[in-house]
Amino acid sequence: MPINKAEDGLWHTACRSFEYTELGNTGTKVAAVNGISHPVVRGGNCPGAGYVFPQATYYFSLPAWKPRAKRESAIALEKAFDRLQKYFEEKPCTTVHQVTVGELALKLEEYIKLEFAKIGGQASKYPPLGWSGEVEEYETNVGLTKPDC
Amino acid sequence: MNRLIIYVFVIVSHMMGYAQLNENILSKNFDIIKSIDFKLVSEEDYDNLDIEYKSDYYYEPKNESPMTFLGYPVSVASFYLTKDQKVKSFGMKILADNATLFYQKVKEKYGSFSVSSPSDYFFEKHGIFLPKEYSEEAENMIKNLPIPTVEEYKDTRTISWYLKIDRNTGKDNATLKIYNHPVKGLNFESPNRELRIVFSLDDLED
After folding, report:
1. Which residue of B has its CA nearest to A100?
2. With an 8 Å Cβ cutoff, are A9 and B56 in contact?
3. Integer Cα distance of B26 and B200 in angstroms
4. What single-letter DSSP state applies at residue A68?
5. Residue B173, phi then psi, degrees to nearest 5
6. d(CA A132, CA A62)
7. Could you say which DSSP state residue A17 is in?
8. What is the spatial distance between Cα A76 and Cα A78, in angstroms, rounded to a whole number?
9. Where along chain B do its domains lie?
10. CA A16/CA A37 separation, integer angstroms
11. In the prediction, which pLDDT does B150 show?
């Protein structure tokens, strides 16, 4: 029997992007992250490029009791990136630009919500009621040879 | 009798090249590669061993010759299995002092990459600074971003190949994803890379 139920990959997103603070007595903790961006290029016979601009702030909510929240969150975000890349790669090849920037941003939002739901949380572009914490900038592990958590 | 069959299978597997870590071990029974250099992963191991993701088994060559990927020795690896002990995904670390040569070998075997997320270094090398905000001008710039050449594969954050692998039940989708890290003390300008290589099966049930 596998020890762990969920498989996941190595990641680029730094855990320190997610500074969770408890939201009153709601049993929820929230991390606000600004500036998540993701460039993507496609090779092969139909090269193309796309980019999710670092404009949005995401509010991530997890149960307050959830252990390893930063690590789980970084992995969830990386999985959302993986899904976005696959989506981009699978778009039919046309002579015009394959995917608009707006379409990519919407897809990433969809995948982030999906991956956070899978770890028992939520992701939204709107702050939860009563939240007044600090927004952290999105950080990566560039320059480190291991993830920061 | 069963033990004898397994023993013969293990020997034949090694003769068939399973001492190499690549897509051929995906969906195969884990016993075909397991050796004394494998360790069952416990919770504490995540703090003490070079494991970057949840795994069932950890591999570090101490007693036997290291397994290889495209001829490069694997320094550590970890494996995630399905409930019936089949390999669903695995990641490994290798060091390449000439990462371009490494990627030429990857391209020779797997073809051009499917999709990639280039690094800031890659863009800066091309004189490109990704815009912070959307504008029409920015969108036009994005459309014309350069595509990494094989010499630049090492300058990406991640680079992936989507593969089809043959199984008895038909073909499966698999992903080969490589994370490029500069070697400690060096930066992206050096040809050296610490490569984290992940093979995963997309649709094998746990």
Report:
1. B139
2. no
3. 7
4. T
5. -85, 135
6. 16
7. G
8. 5
9. 2-201
10. 16
11. 97
> What are the backbone dihedrals phi and psi of residue A135, each rounded to the nearest 5 degrees, phi first?
-90, 125
Amino acid A113: pLDDT: 97
Encoded tokens for B147: 């595509």
Mean pLDDT (whole number) for A51-79: 92
Q: Which of residues 88-127 of A touch B (CB under 8 A)?
A: 88-89, 97, 100-102
Phi, psi of A51 (to 5 degrees): -155, 135
Nearest to B99 by CA among B163, B22, B182, B19: B182
Nearest chain B alpha carbon to A51: B142
Q: Nearest to residue B182, comparing CAs of B151, B164, B156, B159?
A: B156
Q: What is the pLDDT of residues A33-48, one digit of tens each?
A: 999 999 999 988 888 8
Q: Measure the CA–CA gap between A9 and A86, rounded to whole angstroms.
A: 15
* Exposure letters B65-103 (e unless 16+ CB within 10 A, then b): ebbbbbebebebbbbbbbeeebbbbbbbbbbbeebbebb
Give strand pairing partners of A52: A38
